[in-house]
Specification:
Blueprint: H1 12-27, H2 33-48, E1 52-59, E2 62-69, E3 76-78, H3 82-90, E4 94-96, E5 114-122, E6 125-134, H4 142-153
Antiparallel strand pairs: 1-2, 1-6, 2-3, 4-5, 5-6
Helix pairs in contact: 1-2, 1-4
């Protein structure tokens, strides 16, 4: 597949429906996890223009920064800390409409206003999280949850 994305305007659901087959094409035949994480982060950032899109992977009992697109980020996050650490601990997607109201929020960027974090599972264990930040309040909803959860399953 060509490495150029076809960016679709329109409602969020239509954008995801256009993007998912393109992500599948990027991942097809590629076995390197870092390359695949990087391309997913880039595709999501390019399609939606969010502030920050990236992955944290579980290593040595903490989340360690992986491939991402956006401003520099926190390098390590402890279990249960912030939105990412809480998503990891609870093994569930978290949607945070206003990060300032999330107990223990880690402000890696003062520009971040809302966030969604989706855990990545392998053999029933959380192996990492997809973290997406927006510079706008209340940016994420159930549509994002549904499609981002589908996208991370493509990594298996």
């Amino acid at each position: 597949m060509a490495e150029d994305l076809q960016i679709l305007e329109g409602n969020k659901e239509e954008q995801y429906q256009s993007l998912i087959p393109q992500i599948k094409g990027l991942l097809e035949g590629e076995t390197d996890e870092i390359a695949n994480l990087a391309n997913i982060a880039a595709a999501l950032k390019e399609q939606f223009g969010w502030l920050w899109v990236g992955f944290y992977m579980v290593k040595d009992g903490q989340l360690v920064l992986g491939p991402f697109q956006g401003p520099v980020a926190c390098t390590r996050i402890q279990l249960g800390r912030g939105v990412c650490g809480t998503s990891w601990k609870e093994a569930r997607t978290l949607i945070v409409p206003d990060v300032e109201k999330f107990p223990g929020h880690i402000a890696c960027s003062s520009l971040s206003k809302s966030e969604i974090v989706v855990p990545l599972f392998r053999n029933g264990e959380v192996i990492g999280v997809l973290d997406v930040d927006s510079s706008e309040l209340d940016q994420f909803n159930e549509t994002d949850r549904r499609f981002l959860e589908e996208i991370v399953t493509l990594l298996h």
